[in-house]
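Open question from group meeting: does this chain pack into something compact, or does most of it stay loose? Before anyone orders reagents, we agreed to write out a predicted structure and look at it together. Recording both the input and the output here so the notebook holds the full record.
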Amino acid sequence: MTQPPAARRHSSFRGRIGIAREDITPPIGIYSRNWGAAKHDSADSIHRQLTLSALTIASASEDAPLVLIDADLGWWRELDLFSRFQERLLTEMSIESSHLIFALSHTHASAPLMQADSALPGNEILEAWIERIYQATVSAIGRALAQADEAILDWHKGRCGLAAVRDLPDPNPSVNRMVCGFNPAVSADDTLMVGRITDLSGTTRATLVNYACHPTTLAWENTTISPDYIGAMRETMEKETGATAFFLQGMSGDVAPKHQYVGDVNVADRHGRQLGFAALATLNDMEPAGNQLFFDRVVESGAPLAVWRHQPHEHSSDIRSVKTVVDLKIKNWPTADELQQQESKCEDRALKERLRRKREIRRALGDGSSFPLAVYAWRIGDAVLVGSGGEAYSRLQRELRVRFPSLTMICMNLINGSVGYLPPADLYDVDAYPVWQTPFDRGCLERIGETMAGAIEELLD
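Structure tokens returned:
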């Protein structure tokens, strides 16, 4: 008979942790069209505020901290815009490149991160708003560092059924393609990772929710600025815990809510409460901070009773960071100038938006045959956080967790830039949006998976 483990403990870290939040809600009237089918161009109201939260993590007061930003933003439409933003931030705040992760929630109901374009209504507001985001980032990091104190970060695994696979064979049998929508025939990755930050007295200071699900509840009929489901998730968590709730978008390239593409913000709020309740259930399944549950003894009663007790355990204070690069082959796309010409001649509103985005991606990547995509990996005590600026399919996070079964793995998309989808190689035989949207050729997901695995092994060495 196999002997069971003698104790249950969470992956944990003890060190100096700082937390701060800023409001980055843009003004009404800002350009906010993120959907080709949208009839509007500018936001006419605010559903919920957009926030930017900073988390600083250091093993000791003298150490250079890791800095994690959680921002209610969609995606960087121009990669060089983020590159300038990042370089400015690293310089002003004296942060090492591998120590900064600027993560996007990926809401599709925010104003876009792009250069001002006089041809677009409400676009003249964008430049000032993006500068405001930068200043909010500086302020949040500064306050988090100033308020940092000794704390414990524990992780626990739960489940949530919000996300569904969204690659659906077109119901029209005469059309051989995939459409983006709920596919009930395929099971989605429902892994939910919840982090809990407590002070040394056991009071919860923050929670972290890592979950893979596209925030595409609100679509072309929505005219509000909204964090999508993430806003109600935070509200649900914070009402119960009294602590700041962070959201870390998982590898969600192929997963989204079952019911989506609506204009009703109540649907987004319902989705957020579903995720929030699942995260709270996971939180309440955790052992007290700093304690493990260990097998104590057997008491002979009507049955032999196994008695488990809580006892303190040692916490890791290890911090390491790795930044590496993987060269991904680029498809044989037209040049940015050629795409600009196609866009200028196009009269179809939805197709014109597709061409605009494709041109922006092509311009960001240059006209070469490959692109160096950065991969970031952090070790925080017993846990590992890994991600890139791509939109990886959830298959990757599943494979990484299988490959490193003893590790608590926090897997993330859309960190430090955004450059397109990372679909699996077998999907390239299908007419599917993520395949024709991405600039990267077949094998991109597999290559980045090997790079991430190598980075994780380096952290553990």
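Observations to bring back to the group:
The mean pLDDT is 93.
Residues 427 and 435 are 7 Å apart (CA to CA).
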